C-alpha cells in the first residue's frame, strides 16, 4: 500500500476517509511514491471552521508569545532543513543544494517575522483637537488562505505564513498537490514550536479546494502563487466574494546583455538563471536579449558552460534535476520542435543528452535557441523548463521596447558596465523586480516580492512591508476623555472641525 498524505487540521493529521486521491511522483524515478488526499468542499469547510475558531484567541495573543513561537519555529526548521530538502527533492526533483537554497530564502522571511512587533507599532497624535487624541492600530484580518505552486514547495508557503501568523491571523495552506509533503513538515514544525492548534492548517487538494476557499464566507484574505490563468481566476473570484487577494502569476523574464558587459559573468548568469531548477522558477531567465553583435560572443560562452552541466537525479550531486511530471516534460520538449518550425536556430538540443538517473525519470536536458523570432510560441509562452532563447536586437532602445512589450512583468535584468543606461533601464523597465548585473533579483526579506502586469493581480506584493499591510487592516480611534475642570461643549449640530 502506498503512503497516504492527508490534511493537517487543528494541530494534527486529518483522520477522516479520503474520497478522492491524487498520485505523487518521484520525478527522478518516474514512479508513484504516495497518494495525496484531495479535499472535498466539506473538508475545506472543516479546516476553515477550525482556523476561524483558533483566530478568536490567536488574534489576542501577546506579541511576546507570537515572537517566541516564531523564534522557536525558526530553530526547529533550521534543525530539520536537511530532512525538508530531501522531501522537496523527492517530490519536485530539484537538486538537493537548490532545495536547501529555497529553504534558506524561506528562513529569511521567518527571521523577518521574528521582528514583526516593530512593524506592528501603531501611530498616535496627541491633541488633534481640544482634549482629543488619535490612535492608529493595525489588526489581523482573520482566516487567510495561502495557495501555492509546485515549484517552491517550502519557500513560497514561507513567503506568506510566518507573516500572516505573526500578525495574529490563522492560516489554511493549500499546497500544490504535486508536492504536498513539505507543507506537512512545516505543519509539524509549527506544532513543535508551540503554535496553538488550529492557527496553521493544511488542506491538500486541487481546484475543488481552491474554489471553495475563494467562496468561503469566513476566509478573509487569499494569497496565491501560480500560473497566470489561475492567478487571474483566483483574483477575480476572490475579490467578487469580498476578499482581499494577492495573486502572483507566471513570467517570461528577459536578460538584456549590452556589448560592454562582462561577457564571462553574463554567460555564467545566463546558464545559472536559465537552467537552475530545470527552468522551473518564476524568476528563471528564459530570454536573453543580445544587443548589437553581443550574441556572437555569448553563444559559444553559453554552450561551453551548458556542455559542462550534469543533469540527473537530484540526490547524485548533479547540477540540474528532472521536470516535475511526465506531462510537463512532454509539453516542454514539444517546444523544441515548435521553435525549429518557427525558424529559430536550435543550438543545443536537450533531448540528446544522457541523464545520470533511472530510465523512467522525467528527463530533458538543457536546450538553447538562437535567433528566436518574437512571434514564435517559444518566445511568447512561459515554457517553464530548461529552454533558453536568444533574441537579437540592434540597440538598447530596441531591447527595452521588447522587454516592455511582454505581457508579463515579473523580473528583468540588464548586464552592462554603462551606469547611465543601467539607470535608464531601472527607471523605464516595466517589471516589478529588476537586476543590474544580477540575473535573479529576488528581493531580500525586508523588501517585497512581486511582478507587474500579468505577473501579479492585486496591488500588494508578497512579504516585507507589503506582506504586513496585506495581513492587517487599519483602525483609527479618535478619543476624548472628559476633563472635569473643562466646560461641556453642549449640543452642536455643525460638522466637527479640529479647532
Ligand atoms: P498552477 O497555476 O497550475 O497551480 C498553482 C495552484 O493553483 C496549485 O495549488 C493548484 O492546485 C491550483 N490550481 C491549479 N489549477 C487550478 C484551477 N483551474 N482552479 C483553481 N486552482 C487551481 O501553477 P504550478 O504549475 O503549480 O506552478 C507554476 C506556475 O507558477 C508558473 O506559471 C510560475 O511562473 C508560477 N509562479 C509564479 C511565482 C511568482 O512569484 N510570480 C512564483 C512561483 C511560481
From TrEMBL:
Keyword terms, alphabetized: NAD, Oxidoreductase
Gene3D superfamilies noted in UniProt: Aldehyde Dehydrogenase, Chain A, domain 1, Aldehyde Dehydrogenase, Chain A, domain 2
Enzyme Commission code: 1.2.1.27
Record-level Gene Ontology MF annotations: methylmalonate-semialdehyde dehydrogenase (acylating, NAD) activity
Root EC class: oxidoreductase
A Pfam family reported for this protein in Swiss-Prot or TrEMBL: Aldedh
CDD domains reported for this sequence: ALDH_F6_MMSDH
Domain Aldehyde dehydrogenase intervals: 14-477
Gene Ontology biological process terms in this record: L-valine catabolic process; thymine catabolic process
Family annotation (NCBIfam families): MMSDH
Protein name, as recorded: methylmalonate-semialdehyde dehydrogenase (CoA acylating)
Species per Swiss-Prot/TrEMBL record: Amycolatopsis sulphurea
Taxonomic path: Bacteria, Bacillati, Actinomycetota, Actinomycetes, Pseudonocardiales
Amino acid at each position: 500500500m502506498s503512503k497516504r498524505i492527508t490534511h493537517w487540521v487543528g494541530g494534527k493529521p486529518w483522520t477522516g476517509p479520503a474520497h478522492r486521491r491524487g498520485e505523487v511522483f518521484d520525478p527522478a524515478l518516474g514512479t508513484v511514491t504516495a497518494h495525496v488526499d484531495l479535499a472535498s468542499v466539506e473538508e475545506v469547510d472543516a479546516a476553515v471552521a477550525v482556523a476561524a475558531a483558533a483566530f478568536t484567541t490567536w488574534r489576542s495573543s501577546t506579541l511576546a508569545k507570537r515572537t517566541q513561537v516564531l523564534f522557536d519555529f525558526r530553530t526547529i526548521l533550521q534543525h530539520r532543513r536537511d530532512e525538508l530538502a530531501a522531501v522537496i527533492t523527492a517530490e519536485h526533483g530539484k537538486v538537493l543544494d537548490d532545495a536547501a537554497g529555497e529553504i534558506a530564502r524561506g528562513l529569511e522571511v521567518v527571521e523577518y517575522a521574528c521582528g514583526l512587533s516593530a512593524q506592528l507599532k501603531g501611530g498616535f497624535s496627541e491633541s488633534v483637537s481640544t482634549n482629543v487624541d488619535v490612535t492608529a492600530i493595525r489588526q489581523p484580518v482573520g482566516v487567510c488562505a495561502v495557495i501555492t505552486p509546485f515549484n517552491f514547495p517550502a519557500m513560497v508557503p514561507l513567503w506568506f505564513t510566518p507573516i500572516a501568523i505573526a500578525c495574529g491571523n490563522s492560516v489554511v495552506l493549500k499546497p500544490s498537490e504535486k508536492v504536498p509533503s513539505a507543507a506537512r513538515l512545516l505543519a509539524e514544525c509549527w506544532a513543535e514550536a508551540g503554535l496553538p492548534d488550529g492557527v496553521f492548517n493544511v488542506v491538500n487538494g486541487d481546484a475543488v479546494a481552491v474554489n471553495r476557499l475563494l467562496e468561503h464566507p469566513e476566509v478573509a484574505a487569499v494569497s496565491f502563487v501560480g500560473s497566470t490563468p489561475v492567478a487571474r481566476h483566483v483574483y477575480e473570484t476572490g475579490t467578487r466574494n469580498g476578499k482581499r487577494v494577492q495573486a502572483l502569476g507566471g513570467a517570461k523574464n528577459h536578460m538584456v546583455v549590452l556589448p560592454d558587459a562582462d561577457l564571462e559573468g553574463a554567460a555564467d548568469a545566463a546558464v545559472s538563471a536559465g537552467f537552475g531548477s530545470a527552468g522551473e522558477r518564476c524568476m528563471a531567465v528564459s530570454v536573453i536579449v543580445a544587443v548589437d553583435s553581443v550574441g556572437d560572443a555569448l553563444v559559444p560562452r553559453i554552450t561551453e558552460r551548458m556542455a559542462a552541466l550534469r543533469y540527473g537525479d537530484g540526490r547524485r550531486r548533479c547540477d540540474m534535476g528532472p521536470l516535475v511530471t511526465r506531462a510537463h516534460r512532454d509539453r516542454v520538449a514539444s517546444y523544441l520542435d515548435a521553435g525549429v518550425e518557427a525558424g529559430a536556430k536550435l543550438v543545443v538540443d536537450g533531448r540528446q543528452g544522457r541523464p545520470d538517473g533511472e530510465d523512467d525519470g522525467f528527463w530533458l536536458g538543457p536546450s538553447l535557441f538562437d535567433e528566436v523570432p518574437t512571434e514564435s510560441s517559444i518566445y511568447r509562452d512561459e515554457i517553464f523548463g530548461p529552454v533558453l532563447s536568444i533574441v537579437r536586437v540592434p540597440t538598447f532602445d530596441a531591447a527595452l521596447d521588447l522587454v516592455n512589450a511582454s505581457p508579463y512583468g515579473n523580473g528583468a535584468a540588464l548586464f552592462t558596465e554603462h551606469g547611465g543606461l543601467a539607470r535608464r533601464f531601472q527607471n523605464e523597465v516595466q517589471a516589478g523586480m529588476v537586476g543590474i548585473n544580477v540575473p535573479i533579483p529576488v528581493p531580500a526579506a525586508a523588501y517585497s516580492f512581486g511582478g507587474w502586469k500579468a505577473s501579479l493581480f492585486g496591488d500588494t506584493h508578497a512579504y516585507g512591508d507589503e506582506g504586513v499591510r496585506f495581513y492587517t487592516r487599519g483602525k483609527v480611534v479618535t478619543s476624548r476623555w472628559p476633563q472635569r475642570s473643562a466646560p461641556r461643549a453642549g449640543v452642536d449640530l455643525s460638522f466637527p472641525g479640529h479647532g
